[in-house]
């Protein structure tokens, strides 16, 4: 049975960028753009009328901000939201996550990263741009741990600790593979194994745990 394409709503006040995203999604098998707008309030209305699976929302739009639009959309149904912005400031990331969005990407994301983000959040996973992760965990976690988390040096091997530290520093999987001289699949295997060992669901939770455990302080 053929799988239905992922239905996407685009909301960004930059018409040129919307056009780029629309062409990317419409020309890629498995995706279809069901609506687009440059206005936050209109995005909320279109989300209710067109029932997209995923909404790509700019943080800053006229009328109703992207964050307020995200809150309204998320309150109204099963639409998952990915925020897109040129601003990589902590408060935007924190507010977006607090609103319940599933993903956060900077507008310099590659086409492959945008497609991967839409697929990932549609599948029910959280996603953050790697370059955002390090700043975010510093915003959410205390500056220095009083007591290192017991997983340090016990539950995880030294190589796993090395991978966790690099995740917490905001490195992508490919950057981790290059730095530790591992294959990309090996890095993915390490991450899957650590998610299970530490009972976390995604790399952001893993990064926060690592920061609270003092791994970043140990690396200085």
Describe the overall structure.
Residues 7-122 form the Response regulatory domain. The structure is a single chain. The protein is of the alpha/beta class and 220 residues long. The protein folds into two domains: 6-128, Response regulator (Rossmann fold, 3-Layer(aba) Sandwich), CATH 3.40.50; 137-218, Response regulator (Rossmann fold), CATH 3.40.50.2300. Helices cover 52% and strands 14% of the residues. It has eleven helices and six strands. The protein has helices at residues 15-26, 40-50, 66-75, 90-99, 111-122, 130-140, 158-168, 173-180, 184-198, 203-213, 215-218, and strands at 6-11, 31-37, 54-58, 80-85, 103-106, 127-128. It has a six-stranded parallel sheet with strand order 2-1-3-4-5-6, sandwiched between helices. Helix 4 (90-99) links the parallel strand 4 (80-85) and strand 5. The radius of gyration is 18 Å and the shape is elongated.
